[in-house]
């Protein structure tokens, strides 16, 4: 792993690439804002929106800016209240197609002593990025999520996250997120880019537990889920 350099930026060489730097031909693949490396490759769908992508459109029925989004499922590791060691991420609708969220690192979330596990931080990013789809009223699952870990995050830290949808192309929803330490203006700890893929409710009933999906849909606290299902039958 390469060492951090001034400004939190890093230059890393990803195996299988030639260590491209920012400004290369986009056709060669996505150029990471942070690392400067390209990560898309021919035959492997990536994080660069295609030429026919358009801007995201906030759904008229999306929650108003500032409104808490609540948990979409009580047992969700990211946001559910029914997971004692879950992240309990609290998300709020933002302006446009953005979401803000907060997550406080607990002792159960450690990797190294006193520091958040990287996978936990990815989960918090995934949860926040996924919540953006509510503003599109789209049911979608994470297809790909790429993370840069910029600073260690100590236990007890409240991570302030912000995610924004940047483009939509067919079923693909492109979003980016950043997590800052201590306040919405604090130092950047993590960044991520992701593509979500729209799915039908059958994705959950066929692959998951149909009875729990049904229960979740009748839970008044999951009314936003039900609303999304209604517009995406
Ligand atoms: C219990 C009740 C509640 C149920 C849940 C309710 C609601 C959930 C919805 C929202 C929840 C709101 C907030 C939640 C917040 C966070 C939750 C975290 C989200 C997750 O944590 S969720 C778990 C992890 N996630 C998965 O478990 C996905 C596993 N996976 C698959 O299920 C398939 O793999 C799938 C469906 C992704 C695609 O399969 P498919 O057959 O439907 O579609 P296909 O392959 O044809 O791809 C179509 C187009 O997407 C492009 N594409 C595909 N994969 C790509 C990739 N990886 N990278 C870049 N592009 C990709 C193709 O290139 C093509 O693009 P093109 O159209 O241009 O050709």
Keywords, separated by commas or semicolons:
single chain, 233 residues, alpha+beta, Thiol Ester Dehydrase, Chain A, six-stranded antiparallel sheet, globular, binds ligand 3IX
Verbal overview:
- The structure is a single chain.
- This protein has 233 residues and is of the alpha+beta class.
- It has 2 domains: 44 residues, no CATH class; 177 residues, Roll (Thiol Ester Dehydrase, Chain A).
- Helix content is 18%, strand content 23%.
- The protein is built from 4 helices and 6 strands.
- The protein has a 6-stranded antiparallel beta sheet with strand order 1-2-4-5-6-3, with helices on one face.
- Strand 1 and strand 2 form a beta hairpin.
- The N and C termini lie far apart (45 Å).
- The N terminus and C terminus are likely disordered.
Summarize the structure.
With 233 residues, the protein is of the alpha+beta class.
What is the topology?
Layout: E1 90-93, E2 98-104, H1 118-136, E3 140-149, E4 158-169, E5 172-181, E6 188-198, H2 202-207, H3 210-218, H4 223-231
Antiparallel strand pairs: 1-2, 2-4, 3-6, 4-5, 5-6
The structure holds ligand 3IX.
Ligand 3IX binds next to helix 1, strand 3, strand 6 and helix 3.
Catalytic activity: decanoyl-CoA + H2O = decanoate + CoA + H(+); (9Z)-octadecenoyl-CoA + H2O = (9Z)-octadecenoate + CoA + H(+); octanoyl-CoA + H2O = octanoate + CoA + H(+); dodecanoyl-CoA + H2O = dodecanoate + CoA + H(+)
Keywords: Apoptosis, Cell membrane, Cell projection, Cytoplasm, Fatty acid metabolism, Hydrolase, Lipid metabolism, Membrane, Transit peptide
Subcellular location: Cell projection, Ruffle membrane; Cytoplasm; Membrane
């Amino acid at each position: 792993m390469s060492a951090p350099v001034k400004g939190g930026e890093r230059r890393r060489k990803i195996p299988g690439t030639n260590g491209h730097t920012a400004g290369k031909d986009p056709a060669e693949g996505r150029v990471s804002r942070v690392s400067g490396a390209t990560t898309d490759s021919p035959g492997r769908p990536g994080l660069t929106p295609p030429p026919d992508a358009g801007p995201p459109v906030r759904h008229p029925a999306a929650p108003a800016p500032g409104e808490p989004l609540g948990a979409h499922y009580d047992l969700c590791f990211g946001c559910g209240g029914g997971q004692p060691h879950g992240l309990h991420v609290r998300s709020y609708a933002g302006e446009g197609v953005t979401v803000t969220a907060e997550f406080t690192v607990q002792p159960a979330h450690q990797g190294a002593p006193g520091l958040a596990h990287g996978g936990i931080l990815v989960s918090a990013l995934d949860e926040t990025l996924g919540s953006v789809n509510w503003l599109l009223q789209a049911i979608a699952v994470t297809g790909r999520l790429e993370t840069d870990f910029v600073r260690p995050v100590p236990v007890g830290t409240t991570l302030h996250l912000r995610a924004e949808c940047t483009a939509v192309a067919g079923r693909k929803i492109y979003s980016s997120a950043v997590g800052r330490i201590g306040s919405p203006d604090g130092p950047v700890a993590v960044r991520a880019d992701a593509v979500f893929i729209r799915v039908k409710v059958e994705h959950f009933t066929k692959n998951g537990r149909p009875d729990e999906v049904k229960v979740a849909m009748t839970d008044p606290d999951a009314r936003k889920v039900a609303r999304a299902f209604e517009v995406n039958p």
